Amino acid sequence: MYSEVLHDRNGDLHAFYLGGPGGGLPRGVAAANVYGFAPMTVREYSNFMRIGRTQAAAERAARGIVPPPVAPPADPAAPAGAGAARAAAAAAGQLWVLGESIGQKKIGDIVDVPAGAPSLGDVALVQMVDSDGQTRVVTAFRVSADEVAQFCEDRVQQLRSCEACEGIDRIVADDIRTLAVKYGANGERRRGFKETVDEMTTTEMSDFPFEPRTCLPYLQAVQSIAESNFAQHLAWVQQSKIPEGSRAVYEDEALAQILDVAICYDCLCVSNLASFELLVRRRGIVVPALTEHVARKLHADAQIMKQKRKIEESKGRGKSGKPSKPAPKGAAEGALSALRAPVSGYSEPENGVGSVVNMDLSQMSLPDGQVAGVSLLDGLQGEVHSVVHNFEDFMLQDADTFMTLSDEISKVPPYNDPLLASRSGYINFLKHLFQCGVLSHTSTCRGRVGAFCVAKKPKVINNVLQNRQRLVLDCRQTNLSFRDPPMTELGSLAALGQMTLDPEDTLYMASADICDCFYAANLPPGLCSFFCFKSDVTAAEADFISGGVWEVSDGQRICPCISVLPMGFSWSCFLIQCLHDQATMRALQVDRSALVLDGQPPPSLGERDCIAMPYIDNVHSMSTNRARCQDGCDLICEELKSLGFDLHEETPASTQLSTLGGFIDGVKGEVRATSQRMWRVSIAFSYIAHAVVSPKLVQKLMGHAMTICIMNRCGMCIFRKLYDFIEKGETRRLSSSERDEALNFVGFIPLLYSDLRLPWSDTLTCTDASPEGYGICESSCAVQEAKNLGEWCERWRFKTAKLGKWRDCSEHITIKEGRALVLALRRSARVLTRNVAILPLCQKPTSRVIPKKEVIVHKKTQRSLSRASLVTTEKNVAKKATLKRLLPSEWPVSAVKKRACRSIQGVKKDITLDEDSVGTRAQTQRMTVLEQKSISKECRGQYAQYLEKFKAFCRESAVQWPLSTEEADLVMADYMDVMFIEKRAAHEGEKTLAAYEFQFMKHKGLMVRSRRALRGWRKITPATSRLPLPQIIMAGIAMEMVAANLKSMAVMTMIAFHMYLRPGEALELCKRHIVPPVRMAGNQFAWVNIIIRDQIGQKPDKVGVYDNSLPFDVKEHQWIGQQALSLAKALKSPNDRLFTFTMEEFRKTFTRLGAKLGVMNLHPYQLRHGGATQDLTSHVRDFNGVKSRGRWKTDSSVRRYAKVGRVQQLLNQLPDSSRSFCLWSHKNLEKVCTGRCPPRTVSA
C-alpha cells in the first residue's frame, strides 16, 4: 500500500479519463491497455479500506494537514443528547452501514443516517433510491470500522438461512449447482480437483430423475487414485492395454475432460446436476449404491432378483458393484474381464496360468477323439438322474421367470476369440472339435455360446515343455435360462482337517487325475441345443467339418453345438461332482458318510477300511493301511474307466501328498498349505506393512490369506483393521494397528495348520448373554460324545439339513412353536389339578392363552389349536382361567371360520375361501384364487371365448376332450391353419394358445408345433402398428367435438393425446384421479396431475404398475388440466367418472370426425402415439422422458410407437381446407374451450 498524488503535477500520470457509462471503459482507451484484477471478497475489501484510511491519515500528518472534525447533523426529532451520541460514535470509529442490497449499493456500504431517522439502538431506517428511481426504506446498522467485514459475512449468512411462510420460493440458500470461483497465484481462474471433490455435497431432491446418486461416490473413487479424471483416463488406457485407435479411448477421454473442465474451471457442483449423473454412468462406472438400489427394487421377487443380478454380473458388474472396463473387441484380457472369472486357490499361482490367451488349436487340451466318452445319464443314479433326464422340468427356468428375463438375457452377447471372427477360422475350429469328439449338430438352436481359451500349466511331453490351453465356453446367456444348481459339496483340505487320526495310526493317501473331465461327459439328448456356437453352417461346410459323417437333408438347419459338458455351464461342476461321488461310493461299496466333503462330519478311519475325498477331476483314497489305500484308489479308477473316463498322473499310496493347493503329512498328521504358498504370502504381507498400498491389493492378499486360514480357522481372528482399510477405499500406508495385523499374521503362518492327532476334551462349555449380564456353564461328558457333537459345525444350519429335526422343514418354525404350546396345554389338562392358574413359559411365543370370554387364536397357529380344540373360557373376570375341551362345532363365531384377504387401502374383500379348501385346490386339479387373479377379469372372459371356439373345433374334428399334451399340440397346430385360411388375425392364434395353456398348466411349454405354426403366421402377416396422429389433426377433431356440443369428448381427446393415455385409461378417469396443484409448495407441485390406474381401483396398467402420476407440466397445455379439474369439481363422489359416454360412442364419433376432415379409419389409440411423436419432434421431451411418460418398459416400444418420420403421411392426406381448419383449431382451441371464441367446423 503506497500513496500517490492524483494531480497533473505528478509526472508519473500521463492523462486522466472519465469512466464510461455503467462503469465501462473510458472512450479512446483500448481494453488491452487496462489492467484487470480478480474480484475480492468483502473481508478483503474492508481490510484494504482500513489500511488505506491509516495510510491516508499518515500522509496527511506528514504534510501537516489536519482533517476538520466531522460533526453529525442535528436531529430535531431526536431526544436530547442524541447528536452528542452520534458524534461520540463517529469519534469512536463507528460507522453506519447498509444491512441489505439496493441498486448499486451493497451490504456493508457506508451510508449517511440523517438527523431524525427512526432508530432503535444500533439499527436505523433510511430512505434510499434504487436503480429504478423508486424510493425505498432500508435498514442501516452501526458497527465498528474494524468489524465491517465480519458484519457483512454474518449478515449474508443470516439472509441465506431466511425462510418465508408463503410463496413458491420460500427459502434463500446458495445455488446447489455452483461452487465459489477461485483464482490461482497467477490470477487464472482454477480450482484443484481433489480439494473441490472434498467440498462437494449431494443435496437431496425429491424430483431428481436418476436414482441412486452415483456422481459423488465416483469422483471420490477417482480422487483416491488419480489427480484428475483425465489422469485416471490415462492410467486406464495404459493398464487395460486397450488397442490403439479404439473409439472407447476417444470417448472416455472426452468425457474425462468434460468432467475436469466443469469442476476445475466452470466451478460446477456436478454431484447435484442430472446431466453429469448421466455422464458419469456413461463412463461405465457402477458404485455400490447403484447395485443396492437395483437390489431393493427387485426384492419383491427373489428369483427374478437373483437372475437380474446375474445379468448385471455378466455385463461386467460384480456383487460388490465395482466397475470393470468393457472388454474391447479382440483384446485377450477382455473375456476374463467380462466373465469376472475368479482366481482359485486350487493350485499354486503361476504367472500367465489362467489368463486369457489367443486361441491356438494345436495347444488346445481336448480328448483325442478315440475315447467313446461318458454317458451322463447312464453314469448318474437316483434323484440327480431324474433331474438330468427331465431337465425341461427341473433345470430350466419356469416360463414366467424366463419371460420376465428374456429381454435382459438378449442383452448379454457371448464373447468369442478373435480367431472365430473369420469364417475360415470358425470352420477350422469346428472341424478340430469334431475330430476331438466333442462336436455335434442340431436343427433347433435354443441358446448360443462363445468360445475362447485360457492358459493351462505347461506340461512336459516327450521331454519337451509344451504350452497348453483350456477351452472355455461363454455360457452366460444360457446359464440365465437355467435355474441355479444345488449347492455343490466338494472334497476339501478344510474338511479333511476336521478328521481325527489316532496316535498309533499313520495316514496313507493315493491319488489320480481325470483327463479332460468335463469334455469327456456327453450331454443327454436335447440339452445340446442350448450350447450352439456363434452361427449356423451350410451343408457344404458341414460336410467339410464332419468329413461326410453328418447326414443332412436338403433345407435342414445345421447348428453346430458342443456335445459334452462345457466348462462355463453353471450345472457342469455339480453334475461332474455327483458323477464322481456316486462312482466312488459304488467302487468302495460305502455310503456318503465315508466321503470327505464340505458340509458334513468327516468319516472315521477306524470304522472303515478306506475312505475317499472326491474333488471334481481329482481322485483321493485314504486309509491307515497302505495296501487298502492303494486298492481303494484302484477300485475308484477302474469304476471311472468303466464309465468312459481316462485317468493319468496316478500317484501310488504314500504318507505324503500335495493336492488341492496344500500338503498332507500322514506321519505327523498335519494338513497345511504348501511351503511355496506360505512363503509367498509371508513376503507379500511383510511388504504391505511398510509400503503405500491400495485397498484392492490388500483385498487380494486377504483372499490368499484365507486359503491358509481355512486349515486352522483360528487365524481368521487376527484381522479386523485391514478389513476396515479395504472398506474405506483409500490408497496410503498402513496405520500402526493395520501394520501390526499384517506382521502378526506373518508370524502366525507356520502355526496355521490342521492337527489330525489333536485329541478332544471331555469338558463342554456353554455361554450366553442378555442385557442383564452373561453366564458360563461347564459340564463333563465322554470324549466320544464330545467328538460326535463337535464334528457338526454350527454354521452348516444355513446350508444343509442333516442333523436330526433339521431335516423336517415341512412347516414354518412359527407353526412348530404353536404345536409345542398345544402339547404343553394337553399335558397340563391331563396332569394338573383343575381350577388353578397356569403359567406357561415359552421362548418367543407366537400365541398365548389369554383369559377372555371369546376365543383368541393366532392366525399362524390356527390349525394347530383347532386340532387340539383347547381354548380358555371364563365366566367371571375375577376368577382364574380354566381349561375346557370343545368340539370344533362349538367354536364361537369369533374364532375365524373363513379365510379372507386383508383390506388394502379400501380394497374390497372379494376373496373368501372355505376352511376346507385352503391349500388343497391345486392338489385336487383346481385353479387357485391367486392363479385366477393373475389375469384381469376381462382377459379371463376373452380366454373363455377363445377356448370355447377351440373346443368347438375339437368336436368338429371328432377329438375327445380333454386332450393329452401330444393331441393338444397337433390339434392346435391344425386349428391355426384353419384360422389363417379364414383370414383371421394372428393375435387370435396367440390368445387361443395362451387361453389353453392358462387353463391346462401342465401343457405349458410343450406346445412345440403350435408355437412353430404361430411363428410362421407372424412371418407371413407381421404385426403392424397404427400411425401417430399429428397434433393439428387432433386439434381439428377436438374443435369439431366442441362445435357438436361434445366438449367432454374434446377434453378426453386432448388428455389422451398429451398424457399418452390408452383409450381405456382415459375413459376410466374418475374425480379422485384429478389432483389439483398446490401453489405454494414448490414448482414441482404447481401443475394439475392425473393419476392413472390407482391401487384403489385394483386394476394396474398394461405393464402391471399402479399409481402412475402424469402432470400437465408444459405451459401451453396447463389450461387442459384446468378443464379436467373443472369437470372433476362438478362431480360429487370421488368414484364418479369424468366421462359418461361409452367407448363405442367415442370411437364412432372420433372415426366419423376424422373422416370428415379427410383422414379415414382413425382409431383412438393413435392419440397415444401422436402425443409421443409430437413431444419428440418438437423437442419438448427427450427419448427417456417420452419413455417414462408413456410407461413403456423397453426402448423398442418407444421406437415402434413414436414414429417421428411418418407424421407427414397423415398430414399429406388432408385437403387444403381441412389443413387450414386444423391449423386455426390448434391456434384457437384454448379460446374456444374457455368461452372466449365461438367454435367452427370444417365446412364453415
UniProtKB/TrEMBL annotation:
GO biological process: DNA integration; DNA recombination
Name of protein: Alpha-amylase
Keywords: DNA recombination
Top-level taxon of the source organism: Eukaryota
Signal peptide: none
GO molecular function: DNA binding
InterPro entries in alphabetical order: DNA/RNA_pol_sf, DNA_brk_join_enz, Integrase-like_cat_sf
Coiled-coil zones: none
Amino acid composition bias (Low complexity), ranges on this chain: 323-333
Source species: Cladocopium goreaui
Region entry Disordered, spans: 307-333
